Amino acid sequence: SVGTSQSTCKDLPHYADLGGDDCNMYVVWQWCTADGGYGAGWRPAWGPFVTWADENGVDPSEACCACGRAHIVEQRACVDEPGWHGANGNDCAQYYENDWCTPDGSLGVGWQGEWGKLADFASASGVDATMACCGCGRVNILREDVCIDMLAWHDSVGHDCANYTTNNWCTLEGGPGVGWRPAWGSISRVADAVGVDATMACCGCGRRDFCMDEPGWADAAGHECSIYVEYEWCTSDGGSGPGWKDQWGSIEDYANDGVDATEACCACGQCKDVAGWTDRRGLQCDVYRELGWCTRDGETGEGWQVEYGAIADWSFQGVAATEACCACGRNPSDRVYLDCETDLTWADASGNRCYQYITSGWCSPWGWPGESWNEYLYGPMSRYANSAGVDATQACCGCGKGRPNACMDDMDWADSEGNSCATYTGNSWCSPDGSPGVGWKDSWGTIASRASNGIAATEACCGCGKVDITVVRRSCADRPDWRDSDNFGCSDYARAAWCTPTGGLGAGWEWGPLENYS
Questions:
Q1: Domain extent at residue 231
Q2: DSSP 64
Q3: 132 located within any domain
Q4: Which pLDDT band holds residue 142 (cuts at 50, 70, 90)?
Q5: Is residue 107 helix, strand or coil?
Q6: What is the mean pLDDT of the chain?
Q7: In contact, 323 and 336? CB cutoff 8 Å
Q8: Domain end among 268, 300, 323
Q9: How far apart are CA 30 and CA 489, in angstroms?
Q10: CA neighbor of 41 nearest in space, from 16, 15, 66, 62
Q11: Rounded distance between C-alpha atoms, residue 425 and residue 59, angstroms
Q12: Burial code of 10-26, b = ≥16 C-beta within 10 A, e = fewer?
């Protein structure tokens, strides 16, 4: 069923963007088009419209009729949630035919009292008839701030929001969906020309102007989100509001199963951890929260040990826990882009997770087996793929997920002090993203200051950020007739772990350089 909430478009009164420009300026300077796109006068260097949103988060495409607001107004008409069925298997049409509900969200004359509430028959995702069916109250939640996909948006390959949602390329939380292939990298890699990706453009991919309180949530004292709003206990940026009393402690103290109002309620910021983030050890936000390693104000927590250093020392892909994790002070309004998103639900056939592969040294960031992985004893990592056929190199960023190119250390390289790539990675002097590692001392200067013949570790060592774009991983076949000087072949080298895939000495080799046995 379709409602009648369409109305004539009018610019949002007194609107001015972050730079002070009003809707008339957007028309005069041709900065936008009526379908919500970028006009001839808009420069890509200025970024997307959303970066110019006013203090209330409203951007020109939402405020100005000439920039797309007219289309948004038209789309305010209520449409039943496509494909929705409640827990009892009934769809919206059956709710209407049996008079089980009313347009204001109340129980209809056909609803039997012993059945309980409409919410008791919500779908598996927590959506009940009042949220899915216009004739049961859905129209009431289609407020002025309802989520509308960014008009006329396409990613750099030409796909629109419908492609992302119908192909399950993304999730409502902003992460990659089951249809997204690891080989494609992160969703942000195919952002449009001004840097807008599907998580910013599409409601089904986590666009932040869509917000729904966590269904069924109440804090440890039984207070729902509506109570937090009514009594002004919180603010939209996740802080405590004017109605919150100091003697109550913090909002976090009233978390229910680890979830507090700042994570469950739209009005309180509804912070979500960055999808797919782990630190350089493969540890995710849940670990930081459960072990008390950090606090909501971005400081180290009671569980953090001095010998760990700073939280930022364990950043991965340039992102620290304080930027990725709500429990560590993440600002929910900040967008964080990851080149690679770890599958946090993955475990191999033996139950081992990404952090175990990384901290145990079983894998390397460029996709090869790590120093502690003995292929002679364990076989290839692919042998331990889970039931879906996914192994650590496909699930874990710290094990090479998302790296389309093979990488090999420059075997003959040493820095100006004589240190090789193995020394750098073995002592944690560097990070895979090219930054100094936890073992690097500030008194040594920069990694670049120890370059040799103009080449630093960041250019010579895969574990220090080297990216070899000239070497593409291809299928490899051993030379069937090759034997070394002692008549051993490739299969012997593999079984005995005499070498590594990067050309180094394996754990089972004890006899000097491999070249001596050519």
A1: 225-268
A2: -
A3: yes
A4: very low
A5: strand
A6: 80
A7: yes
A8: 268
A9: 69
A10: 66
A11: 46
A12: ebbeebebeeebbbeeb
